[in-house]
Amino acid sequence: MADSKRKNKTPEQQQYEKFEQKYETKRPVLKNCIKAFFVGGFICMIGQLISYFYIYFFHFTEQTSSNPTTATVIFLSMLLTGFGIYDRLGQFAGAGSAVPVSGFGNSIISAAIEHRTEGFVLGVGGNIFKLAGSVILFGVFSAFVVALIKTIFIMMTGGF
Amino acid sequence: MTNKKYAFYILIFSICVFLTGCEKETPNSRWSMLKKVDPAPIALYTETAAGQEELLQGIKEETSMMPSIYDVAVIKGKKDTLVAYKVKQMARFKMKRIEKELTEKLKSKYPDEKFTVSSDFKIFLETIRLWDKTQQPDFSKEKAEKRLKEIIKLNNELT
Q1: Is 80 exceeded by the pLDDT of residue B18?
Q2: What's the pTM value of the predicted model, to 2 decimals?
Q3: Closest CA to A81 of A118, A34, A131, A37
Q4: Is residue B154 less than 8 Å (CB to CB) from chain A?
Q5: Chain B residue closest to A86 (CA)?
Q6: For residue B67, what are the CA distances in angstroms to A155, B61, B62, B71, B96?
Q7: Which of A69, A115, A107, A70 is nearest to A87 (CA)?
Q8: How far A67 CA lies from chain B's nearest CA (Å)?
Q9: What ipTM, to 2 d.p.?
Q10: Do B7 and A83 count as a contact with CB atoms less than 8 A apart?
Q11: How many CB atoms are closer than 10 A to CB B20?
């Protein structure tokens, strides 16, 4: 695929491509991965602490504590986005701050802040789920597909 | 006030919320989620049948013999026997299988007993809290039995 694309390019284009590659700033992939790993891990550790908090002080079991924990982490990330702290964390950690569930809260609030000047209904209301909407849609749809597969599997095999 | 100051105050408030309530905890239950407690098995009604201690000790030993389990608490009420245990970190992927194996093992060895088996931290914590309370002389058997039933009910809750 890459070779056929290269063949279609003129010698000038190929020369320019080589020239561009020479001066292009290389992305520190490994460094970014390490940062994402540690920051993402740290966010998950906070989530685990919140989960233990709900288990210890309230009537939640390990199974049931996951719902309030998720809600709390999302709420905290929303607050931090509003204060402008989460943006800096996002710049530093990249996927490390976007992949955990806290990234979901960030995506909602950042879209709301961005479109605040366009008004509450068409601006905030119309755009608040601009990023998170696709996450919710894919989440619900994939859960439906997985549940369907599981149901068919259990009906066919009788479960193990 | 700047945003940083707001964030700082929220952090301090959150830490305070996390730390409140520790003072009321009993000695064993305070750290039971983090370290091994290994309490002796207890029966709430010792007078109902002879050899209760041996039976409970046997249940505890049977449970402890499983290689992936490292901390076991056993409390026997009038009808129910609650077995709460902690699973080693790397074996937590196989929790359901461990629970199934343990239930089958205990049921085959003690067919007359009604077991409630749980690896949930909350159930373990509440079992230790109950264990601590039973050590107090003013805590009645009826209250203990009621609490035991509540813990079993909590274990059966799914959502």
Answers
A1: no
A2: 0.79
A3: A131
A4: yes
A5: B7
A6: 35, 12, 11, 11, 15
A7: A107
A8: 9
A9: 0.77
A10: yes
A11: 10
pLDDT at A106: 93
> Hey, what amino acid is at B129?
R
Cβ–Cβ below 8 Å for A61 and B3: no
- Give which of A136, A86, A137, A128 is closest to A108, Cα–Cα: A128
Find which of B9, B82, B122 to mutate to test the A interface (most A CBs within 10 Å of its CB).
B122
Q: Is A78 helix (H, G, I), strand (E, B) or coil?
A: helix
| H or E segment to which residue B147 belongs | helix B141-156
pLDDT tens digits, A23-59? 988 889 999 999 999 999 999 999 999 999 999 999 8
Q: Could you give the C-alpha distances from B7 to A40, A86, B13, B70, in angstroms and in order?
A: 20, 11, 10, 40
Question: What is the pLDDT at residue A26?
Answer: 87
Q: Do B7 and A64 touch (CB under 8 A)?
A: no
Contact B69, B63 (CB under 8 A): yes
